[in-house]
Amino acid sequence: MTHVSLSNLRAIVIIIVVAFHSSLAYLIWAPNPTAGFDQIPYSWQAFPIVDVHRWIVLDVFCAWQDVSLMALMFLLSGLLTVGSLLRKKTVTYLSDRLWRIGLPFVLAIVFLSPLSFYPAYLVRTSDPSIIGFWKQWNALPVWPAGPQWFLWLLLVFNAMAAVLYSIYPTYVDRLRQLATWLSERPFRLFTLLVIVSSAAYVPLALTFSPWDWTALGPFSWQICRPALYLVYFFSGVCLGSIGLDRGCLARDGVLARHWAALLIAALVTFGLWAGFTSLAFPDWNKAAPLVKLGASLAFPLACTSGGLFLLAFFQRFAATWRAWTLDSLSANAYSIYLLHYVFVVWLQFAFLRVELFAGGKAVVVLTIALAVSWAISVAFDRLIAAVPFLATKRTLAPRARA
Q: Can you give the residue ranges of every domain in the chain?
């Protein structure tokens, strides 16, 4: 991203993502690792390591990230789609997406996923051998992808945008008209996002629960959310269709000017969602119908408020921030996303017997995992830049792009 505020937002987002995964081992509601590695419900896919040290503040932080940040990541990923499609056209665009998203996804699930989940096996078995792990890993009904689920879903959304462009190229003009209309009134974008994302989310959440996951081979997804994420991705496509410094994304645009109102809305709606969700937890099926309806309706509200607040805040205050750390984090965000989980899980495993406050453990894991994955990304990027053939591809360390 060349736009300063969005580049800075990307840098902060990757820190938050690493912090989220670094905190999972220390949540109050994290399930104790009682079942074996090869036994249903395979809770280690979400919580590979569960420490005895817990802190409720980390639960609140992870809940906020889950509500506010994931949808925003899909919105940010859609911002440059129109520009790329117009420049590269459909076939080249799809080829580029396969190269930059599809190939890293395959490499990550083949090599990084087993490495990431080996510590989860070690704390759930009496046979800590690599051979024993590999036997149980290959006997699983799915191929756990960990955080890389984001990549395959993003690739599908990219392909949908490209196919739509090949069939109906004038949809770009329609998106530009919509983006201009959204920028004319303060809360048009907010209202439209809430309505459409509610239609995409609420029926599925009520039917399946907000927490159920399913998988087909290495492709896993949270049942109630793909349609919601699709809404946010195409919202990003729409907003970015007129440029990253115009319309709602302008420094003095409707979002930036109303960042304080969005902050208040984010706090209120998150509290509303948390209240209803706490009443429905842990057994969604036994919760009262009105509680389930309230939690389901509150989620899109909190999701929209939180995501748009972050976007508005950075548009308003971060448009002139320039620091090499933020620039480097932004440029290496994708590679950090691919690499960090391995270090997070192994560090959580290494600290299991360390007597340290849960918040302290989470901070140490975050600091080391971020620093190591960041350093590897920078070093590898310099290496491929020094090789002429690889420099033209820059495959495994893609630069900062939506």
A: 4-393
